[in-house]
Structure of S5 DRBM domain-containing protein:
Amino acid sequence: MGERGGERGGERGGFGRGFGGRGGGRGGPRGRGRRAGRPTEEEKWTPVTKLGRLVRDGKIKQLEQIYLHSLPVKEYQIIDLLVGPSLKDEVMKIMPVQKQTRAGQRTRFKAFVVVGDGNGHVGLGVKCSKEVATAIRGGIILAKLSVIPVRRGYWGNKIGKPHTVPCKVTGKCGSVTVRMVPAPRGAGIVAARVPKKVLQFAGIDDVFTSSRGSTKTLGNFVKATFDCLQKTYGFLTPEF
């Protein structure tokens, strides 16, 4: 009887409950310990899309090759491989949002994350989750998947590297409107805190901006700035 009980206990994994064999060995690593294993997960990345396989095999070496053919990026590891360690991310805001249910209010956390390499590539991700850490992690992944190219130009003579926006551009989200005007070299980024961070991540050194609407709504403010940068490639010029 004791042997059978031992066998049954072994099959069940002790007194653990729940799904997928989570219950056994209670003294094992929990929670934050997973972070140490994250690099190995990235090393073992197995692409599931054709684009991912081409990037892994070294057939595609630049993001511009993807943008040129308007290919959808479905795996964030593609951006990690092509951009590398120069890609920085920053959490712009974490805000609680609530939904009224029969049992009461359900609170979740919404994270706004911006990523960029400071060299003409920027992305914006918005993720909602029950936990702050999960929302931030999801926001970073979505921001990488939404990375766009930013066209840069000159204010006057074409001397040195492009440093500002190529022309006047306007972006909008909700009631917030953001307008960007080319600025001379050395003027710096004349903008509020939110668009300034996005522009720095995009690699723009000099620009004049104006905004109107409810700019205290950070979500719409950052989305309007992102829309503005997206429109820099929305027109044709002679070099094309």
Remarks:
- Strands lie at 88-101, 104-116, 121-129, 148-149, 169-173, 176-182, 189-190, 207-212.
- The chain is about 30% helix and 25% strand.
- The chain has a mean pLDDT of 87.
